[in-house]
Design goal:
The complex is a heterotetramer, with 1 copy of chain A (306 residues), 1 copy of chain B (493 residues) and 2 copies of chain C (331 residues).
Chain A (H helix, E strand, L loop, with lengths): L4 E6 L5 H12 L1 H4 L4 E6 L4 H13 L4 E5 L6 H10 L4 E4 L10 E4 L2 H15 L4 E7 L5 H15 L4 E8 L4 H14 L6 E4 L2 H13 L8 E6 L2 H8 L4 E4 L2 H16 L9 H4 L12 E3 L3 E3 L4 H7 L2
Parallel strand pairs in A: 1-2, 1-3, 3-4, 4-5, 5-11, 6-7, 6-8, 8-9, 9-10
Antiparallel strand pairs in A: 10-12
Chain B lengths: L5 E10 L2 E11 L3 E7 L5 H8 L7 E6 L2 E2 L5 H6 L2 E4 L11 H5 L14 H14 L15 H14 L4 E5 L7 H16 L3 E5 L3 H7 L2 E6 L2 E7 L5 H9 L17 E10 L3 E9 L3 E6 L5 H8 L9 E4 L2 E3 L4 H6 L2 E4 L3 H5 L6 H6 L7 E2 L2 E2 L1 H14 L16 H14 L4 E5 L7 H16 L3 E5 L3 H7 L2 E6 L2 E7 L5 H8 L1
Parallel strand pairs in B: 3-8, 3-9, 6-7, 7-8, 13-20, 13-21, 16-19, 19-20
Antiparallel strand pairs in B: 1-2, 1-4, 4-5, 9-10, 11-12, 11-14, 14-15, 17-18, 21-22
Chain C lengths: L4 H34 L6 H26 L7 H14 L16 H24 L5 H20 L9 H8 L1 E2 L2 E2 H19 L1 H11 L1 H6 L4 H27 L10 H11 L11 H20 L4 H25 L1
Antiparallel strand pairs in C: 1-2
Helix pairs in contact in C: 1-12, 1-13, 2-7, 2-10, 2-11, 2-12, 3-4, 3-5, 3-10, 4-5, 4-10, 6-10, 7-8, 8-10, 11-12, 12-13
The chains are: A alpha/beta (306), B alpha/beta (493), C mainly alpha (331).
The structure holds adenosine-5'-triphosphate (2 copies) and magnesium ion (2 copies).
The site of one adenosine-5'-triphosphate has 20 residues of chain B, from strand 2, helix 1 and helix 14.
Protein name (chain B): ABC transporter related protein
InterPro entries (chain B): AAA+_ATPase, ABC_carbohydrate_import_ATPase, ABC_transporter-like_ATP-bd, ABC_transporter-like_CS, P-loop_NTPase
GO molecular function, one term (chain B): ATP binding
């Protein structure tokens, strides 16, 4: 019998976060020891492409699929294609609105949205003005992080949201947006809630370009990309690390288990996160905790990136 | 005896299995004008573009001053002292006249800057010396076809080349401009240069050429001195059979007015044009370049806006706003610029022939392909269009054959009134006669022809009546009996 | 009897034209042969059906684009129209309680008609702006690209429209005699367009209006009407493609169709249609779309790493067209 | 003496040309006036400086694109070249220990030279494929769009290149006499291009090669060389733009520049340069790029909601060009 073939369909590999996620798959002990064969498919940020890749995986008889959909709604049809062919699908990082999913390993975006907004609001003392820079409208992460943002903002009724706009996860777009906002609201902006790190970093560059003191703003992002860790280290922003590596490796453990019921998880993550028990791979949902990046843990996190 | 400036032997060229030229032979002596004659598609342009290095050859040798040469690109030919006026004009529309003339050899000032002042000055001097009356600073696209042709001529002369190739330089010109060109050619000849001259207007050839070479179907058929050949003999060599008379005219004007134009204005400078064209009549609009003849046609065709005037067709008042209405009422319009407004160069011969007649070749929205094919074959036969297949792109046809395609398109529509703007431009003697015959038959059968022509021979040979325009107004009307070259010029100038 | 000179000449001409016409087909076959050797699954019926299905959406867009490009235009808005038609039609065919259209779900036919209508209206606007206001098509349709995307987000409130009815999803998921519906629809569109372009008066007008608008006008072609209609066709087909996409993926996404215009135009141009108008065939577009899909599919099958894929894909497509050019030059 | 007919004709022509030349400028001014009334901050020096800075990257790309479009080509690869040149040059100027280039950071000048070189090489490849292999520029540069993006990701391993040296970032962040460096560089590029296109022999040849390639060739212009060079120019400028972008954002991102080609082409076309070649001005491109930037900036300033922004932006740009067309028609 050949070794299990596991496919990983991710929405896109152009950004650092998914790169970390994919690299973690390759670093999984089972892959390194050659127990399973993993192929990563780049969905090119298109739900249809992802679905087509599912069709391809079915054609080639993959044994299990790990799925990071571009969108919570768009993935269901793809999952059905696989499950019709008897291939189990495990979600990772982004949910799929489908009860055919075998299990899901991810982090709750509503929670991170809440956490980052809370940080900003705490820092400005629950009063003043903030701006929100959103992800691409309609994407699940944007929808859920916004929900979290709003939850935190609701707790500070005195805080006014001066502006909210999308910058499509892009640093350059966020930078332009922030430049314009700084002009439109001179001296009024106290906090910046960026729905990811890239956009928060763009805001920081705009603030610098306007000759303002970054430290006088409360800025937060999500994901924990390398540049953001460096910015945290420089005390310019807060970030919340989403452990993509854990999401990837956890899903892979589950996928192998589905192919080979005798399999025991080999990833370190089950030790790292005591809050997330393996439970013999029987759970429907595994929630990888968020890790706020602080001046204390940033060096250790940076060391992991080498 | 002096050495030949240019000698060519055994030149061959084929396009995708079709031989355009199977034996091109030519010998140009210094201080002479050498006419290259041949019917449409005889391979003249192919021959000349190969000599110029614009196309490559399949076989044959070219000797320049006795030395064999191979031109990989036109600039090599320029370097060897050869320049060309191509049959198809090559303006760079967005550039000025001076920039067009000096393209590729712009004078430079400091820092690699183009010396526009000296360029404009030199271009203007050249144009003035040729008496072309064109400003060197005008943008090319604001010129008329004729003016562009003049610029093309100035450009070829500006190269100061020893061999100057002119491929139908007068096809877009009127008499006055042509005689200026001839004067320039005379000066070049006196300076010892050699000129290769292509024209389907035989009178010109007998007026300016010293010797001739004739091609037929891609083959060299003969050469000699113009002094030793008669017009009939030359025509026979070109066409391959004797041609009894050049003009065929058997129609007689009737009484019924087919097209009546009253007080028509066009644009803001063509005013108060009135004329009647009768059934059975060939009516010519004559005038110098820019006298407004084409503008009258464009107005009648609904291409320019209504500036007043009345038009009646067979007594019925009409108000044509767009070409489709004109076609529906039995008008046909051969435009003067076949490249700009005539042909769809990217389409094949059949599509071009059928374009104005699609409504009669269809069943509901569906085209009847057999009828299309039959109709197009009919026109190919009627005008003896030389093409291997009617599915060939029309851009692959020789210039004269392209012109015949435009004519064929409009004859296919079975019109009642024909509007022809310089219909025989670039058409060979044999085919011209065919066109005259068809025109004459058309008129004889009760149609009316309104033709614009700048070629005096043609006007004298074909017109029943001539309306002469000058500066956008009618300056006189001549009956056939009153026609002469002098009377035409008198009214036009 | 041995061929007369003129017969053999005609034959040579035919070969030359054939080579020019099908050069890119040769490239496609070559790529397929290579892939067949490189991967055992490539030639399976199942995978070939997949390739066809994967061609269908881009293929439908590319066919509409062919009409537009034949008239010297370009339609950048197709990707956004895909999304707009998708969410609007889906909103009539969703079982979700958050539906923005009350009283739904409506019958699929109704929803589908609305989707096509949305596409047609977008196309009509493009067409009017291009044909009557003389705005370059690049600008006009770029405006629509932006506006239609914005409308999509506005209409859907930024969220996907999920839970489409099975009858709506029929056009994306079901098969007829083993042929998936998207492929069936694509084939219908292809043959209809082939017929329109080669056999109808309108088709003749499209070529003439693209080849030489001035001459076409003088010959009685209503060039503005032709221009208008090609955008309507492109818009309508984009609408159809948007619904097939929604039906396939099971929900209509507001981000659907982003950058689809590039692939559609690529298919057209690879297929030999000239961006300067008047020259081209819908058959070429089919081959172009197939080539793109085959390359994507093949690289995925072989599990080529994503980054290399992008490099290889770029090179393969250029190489295919280079081959085509070399052939047609030599012939 | 009252004007002769021919004089008055010339005068009318002048007015017509003036209108055509500056029609879009009128639209730009109009939009600015509206914005000035709608938002008090619009006309502040600070905001105007912002607008210029926000114009600069697209402006530089659009100027390179102008050269290409003048020769009837198109360069879709600029966005990807922005990213590739960005990461490659940045890898020589990063202080990060994860650097892929040993021995860094190198002097900024060196890194910058390498970035331009990367752009030039990409342009050279585009140019060779277009000019000598006769591949339509759309296909050739679409291939490069894909390949260069793949190379970017491969080179950088999918991660941004962070922590650029201050000397490298100088071109993005510093100012000279209150004018930000990107604007200074943009101005340099603009005036140099203006000079090249209007005053040099090469400039004449660009117009000729685009206006009538056959005639240009017959006149001795080396059309292939001109075609090659315009892609090199576009590539080189894209390289420069990529580094300015990296310097501005503080790190070179692998996703930088996605879809930038559309905005660049839009600026060129809005500025009146014809996609069919031979006609156009770099001044128009400047105005086009400014128009796009002003619209974006104005809508942000007024705090228009995202969804509406896209709709309005699309409509505004089309309206501006419509105004331009109407003016030039009437004149
Ligand atoms: N590019 C081409 N492709 C195919 N056939 C061509 C091409 N160019 C010329 N031919 C063919 O070669 C033959 C000779 O054409 P050429 O233009 O040399 O004739 P010509 O003597 O100049 O005629 P005319 O007096 O009408 O200008 C014609 O039959 C034409 O169809
Ligand atoms: N008085 C005038 N006012 C404006 N434009 C004029 C005038 N006279 C001549 N023109 C210009 O000259 C051109 C007329 O040239 P046209 O192309 O009609 O030349 P043609 O065909 O030799 O002459 P005709 O008009 O007699 O056929 C027009 O395009 C027009 O721009
Ligand atoms: Mg000729
Ligand atoms: Mg005329």
């Amino acid at each position: 019998q050949d070794k299990p073939k596991i496919g990983a369909a991710v929405y896109g590999l152009n950004a650092e976060f998914m790169q970390i996620w994919a690299a973690a798959l390759e670093q999984h002990p089972a892959v390194k020891q050659g127990l399973v064969e993993v192929t990563v498919f780049d969905g090119r940020y298109d739900a249809l492409v992802q679905q087509e890749q599912f069709e391809t995986m079915v054609t080639q008889g993959f044994d299990a699929i790990i799925f990071v959909p571009i969108d919570i709604e768009a993935g269901a049809a793809a999952v059905k294609v696989a499950s019709d062919a008897g291939i189990p699908v495990f979600g990772s990082n982004t949910r799929v609105n489908s009860d055919l999913l075998s299990a899901y390993v991810g982090s709750d975006d509503v929670q991170s949205g809440y956490m980052e907004a809370k940080y900003v609001l705490d820092k400005i003392g629950c009063k003043g003005n903030v701006v929100v820079i959103e992800g691409p409208i309609g994407q699940s992460a944007q929808i859920q992080r916004l929900e979290g943002n709003m939850k935190a903002l609701a707790e500070c009724p005195d805080v006014k949201v001066l502006e909210d706009q999308t910058a499509n996860w892009s640093r350059a777009e966020a930078q332009t947006l922030m430049e314009n906002w700084l002009t439109a609201h001179p001296g009024e902006i106290n906090g910046v809630i960026g729905q990811n790190d890239e956009m928060a970093l763009g805001a920081i560059e705009a603030i610098k370009a306007a000759d303002l003191d970054v430290k006088s703003f409360a800025i937060a992002g999500i994901d924990g990309v390398t540049d953001a860790l460096l910015a945290v280290k420089a005390d310019q922003m807060a970030s919340i690390l989403q452990d993509g590596a854990a999401q990837a490796q956890g899903a892979l453990d589950l996928a192998i288990k589905a192919v080979d019921p005798t399999y025991e998880p080999m990833s370190e993550i089950w030790k790292t996160y005591a809050d997330m028990p393996w439970n013999n791979g029987a759970d429907k949902e595994y929630s990888v905790p968020w890790t706020p990046v602080t001046l204390e843990n940033v060096d250790a996190l940076l060391a992991l990136r080498q | 005896m002096a050495e030949a400036l240019l000698q060519v032997r055994g030149l061959k060229k084929h396009f995708g299995g079709v031989a355009a030229l199977s034996n091109g032979q030519f010998c140009l002596m210094p201080g002479s004008v050498h006419a290259l004659c041949g019917g449409n598609g005889a391979g003249k342009s192919t021959f000349l573009t190969i000599v110029m290095g614009i196309q490559d050859r399949d076989a044959g040798i070219i000797l320049r001053n006795g030395r064999e040469v191979v031109f990989a690109k036109p600039s090599d030919a320029h370097a060897a002292g050869i320049s060309i006026i191509e049959q198809e004009l090559g303006p760079i529309p967005a550039m000025t006249v001076a920039e067009n003339i000096f393209l590729g050899r712009e004078p430079l000032a400091r820092f690699g800057r183009v010396d526009f002042a000296s360029m404009n000055r030199r271009a203007q001097e050249l144009l003035d010396s040729l008496e072309f009356g064109i400003s060197a600073r005008t943008v090319m696209m604001d010129l008329t076809v004729a003016e562009m042709q003049l610029v093309e001529i100035a450009k070829a002369l500006s190269h100061d080349a020893e061999v100057i190739i002119m491929d139908e330089p007068t096809s877009a010109l009127g008499g006055a401009e042509a005689s200026r060109l001839f004067a320039a050619i005379g000066r070049l000849k006196a300076a010892g240069k050699g000129i290769i001259y292509v024209s389907h207007r035989l009178s010109e050839i007998f007026q300016i050429a010293d010797s001739y070479t004739v091609f037929r179907d891609g083959e060299f058929v003969g050469e000699g001195a113009i002094a030793d050949v008669s017009r009939e003999a030359l025509i026979q060599m070109i066409v391959g059979r004797p041609l009894t008379e050049e003009f065929v005219k058997e129609n007689t004007p009737g009484d019924e007015v087919a097209l009546s134009v009253r007080h028509l204005n066009a644009l803001d400078w063509v005013k108060d044009i009135s004329f009647d064209a009768h059934r059975g009549e060939i009516l010519v609009l004559y005038g110098l370049m820019g006298s407004g003849r084409s503008e009258v046609f464009e107005r009648l065709w609904g291409l320019s806006e209504d500036r007043g005037g009345e038009v009646r067709l067979f007594g019925q008042p009409t108000n044509i706003r767009k070409p489709a209405q004109a076609i529906a009422q039995g008008l046909a319009f051969v435009t003067e610029d076949r490249k700009e407004t005539g042909l769809v160069l990217t389409s094949d011969v059949r599509a071009n022939l059928c374009l104005a007649h699609l409504d009669q070749l269809r069943l509901g929205p569906v085209m009847l392909k057999r009828r299309e094919a039959a109709a197009s074959q009919r026109m190919i036969d009627a005008f003896s269009i030389k093409t291997p297949s009617d599915r060939l792109e029309v851009s692959g046809l020789s210039g004269g054959n392209q012109q015949k395609v435009v004519l064929g398109r409009w004859f296919m529509t079975d019109p009642k009134v024909l509007m022809l703007d310089e219909p025989t431009r670039g058409v060979d003697v044999g085919a011209k006669r065919e066109i005259y015959r068809i025109m004459s038959e058309f008129a004889k059968a009760g149609g009316a022809v309104v033709m614009i022509s700048s070629e005096a021979d043609e006007v004298l040979g074909m017109a029943d009546r001539v309306v002469v325009l000058r500066d956008g107004r009618i300056s006189g009307v001549l009956e056939r009996a009153e026609l002469s070259a002098e009377s035409l010029l008198h009214l036009a100038a | 009897m041995p061929g007369t000179p003129s017969q053999s000449r005609n034959f040579k001409l035919l070969v030359a034209q054939y080579g020019q016409k099908y050069g890119i087909l040769v490239a496609l076959v070559l790529v397929c042969v290579i892939l067949a050797f490189a991967n055992e699954y490539f030639l399976t019926t199942r995978n070939l059906v997949n390739v066809l299905r994967q061609t269908s959406i881009n293929g439908i867009l590319a066919i509409g684009m062919t009409f537009v490009i034949l008239t010297r235009g370009i339609d950048l808005s197709v990707g956004s129209v895909v999304a707009l038609a998708g969410v609007v039609s889906a909103s009539f065919a969703t079982t979700a309680t958050t539906a923005m259209v009350p009283g739904g779900p409506y019958p699929a036919v109704f929803a589908l008609a609305i989707g096509v209508l949305v596409g047609v209206v977008c196309g009509l606007i493009n067409g009017v702006i291009v044909a009557f206001f003389r705005v370059p098509s690049f600008v006009a349709t770029l405006g629509m690209l932006s506006a239609a995307r914005g409308l999509t987000l506005l209409y859907a409130g930024g969220k996907p429209v999920p839970a489409l009815t099975d009858s709506f999803r029929y056009i994306g998921t079901e098969s007829i005699l083993g042929v998936p519906m998207p492929v069936v629809l694509f084939a219908l569109v292809f043959f209809a367009s082939l017929w329109v372009l080669t056999s109808t008066r309108f088709g003749r007008h499209v070529y003439a209006a693209g080849g030489n608008p001035h001459a076409a006008r003088v010959s009685g072609v209503n060039v503005n009407r032709v221009r208008l209609l090609v955008y309507v066709i492109s818009g309508g087909l984009a609408g159809a493609a948007g619904m097939i996409l929604a039906a396939r993926t099971g929900s209509a996404l507001t981000q659907a169709g982003i950058a689809y215009e590039l692939d559609a135009i690529a298919a057209v141009v690879i297929g030999g249609t000239s961006l300067s108008g008047g020259v081209g065939k819908v058959t070429g577009t089919l081959i172009g779309a197939l080539l793109i899909a085959v390359v994507n599919n093949g690289l995925d099958l072989m599990g080529v790493e994503s980054y290399y894929q992008q490099v290889i894909k770029g090179m393969l497509i250029v190489a295919a067209v280079m081959l085509d050019q070399a052939r047609s030059k030599q012939a």
